[in-house]
Amino acid sequence: MARCGTIYSRAVSRTLYEQLDQPEGVPPLALTGERTLPDVPEENYWFRRHQAVYEWIAARVASERVIDMACGEGYGSDVLAASAASVVGVDANPEAHEHARLRYQISTRPNLRFERDLVESFAEPADAVVFLQTIEHLQDPDAVLAHFRSLVGERGSVYVSTPNVLTLAPKGAERSDNPWHVHEYRAEEFEQLCRRHFGSVALFGLFHTRKLRAHELALRAGWDSVHPRLGITKRFYDWFTPAIAASDFVLRPRGQADLDRALDFVAVCR
Asked: What angle do CA 136, 148, 49 make, to 5 degrees?
């Protein structure tokens, strides 16, 4: 579960971390907890967790016009642009927007651009809107989903993800301690929110697989009490955390998995 184990916990002094090895002329972003970042070894688990969903969506938006709302650092927009006809990454934060523009528009993707705007106001016709790990930050999610529906019309799709409060929050707590989150959702509540605006909602859950599943089983067997006694905690996680890949996560649809145990939910709305 996301609340257990060293790699799933974010450092308290997170502003001490910033991106490493950025291209010349691209200012690194600091890790504050508001968004995940690539190129921060300590953040790799969370970055790959988000990247896995972007890659899953990229396979479903081939040759489409896509808006990546609240795109943050821009890595997800870049993933989507590998298959989409065009991608617009939208973010209101000036530092994130400038970083994304400089880092990813210097690449060889003429179909990718970035716009600084609010998700509530950016308006451009699209075949798909992608909105990942942000709806939990909103005071009025209904207004935003209604806006997205107007952008894609009757035939388009909206992809929305959010963390599962049951696995994000400490056991017994009503919510996590993330100060950026306004509301954290259970599966049924999140699905009901989406169904208020879309006639068809398919809900998926994100789970650990491969080496993360092995690590999860090791935690259940008592690994957290073993590595401190052996004095290998730092050495192990200094190796293990950077080795995590997007392929260590898998999306499963409702009916094939217990969504109460999911890390994140992904709703495909039409």
From this structure: 45
Backbone angles phi, psi at 66, to 5 degrees: -125, 140
Q: How many CA atoms lie within 13 A of 169 on its CB side?
A: 16
Residue 14: give the domain boundaries: 6-269
pLDDT 10s digits, 68-109: 999 999 999 999 999 999 999 999 999 999 999 999 987 778
Give long-range contacts, CB 8 A cutoff, 24+ apart: 178-186.
Answer: 178/33, 179/33, 180/33, 180/34, 180/137, 181/136, 181/137, 182/136, 182/137, 182/138, 182/139, 183/136, 183/138, 183/141, 184/136, 185/135, 185/136, 185/265, 186/260
Q: Which residue has the tokens 């504050």?
A: 32
Six token digits for residue 225: 């009490």
Predicted TM-score (pTM) above 0.85: yes
Whichever domain contains 26, its CATH number is: 3.40.50.150
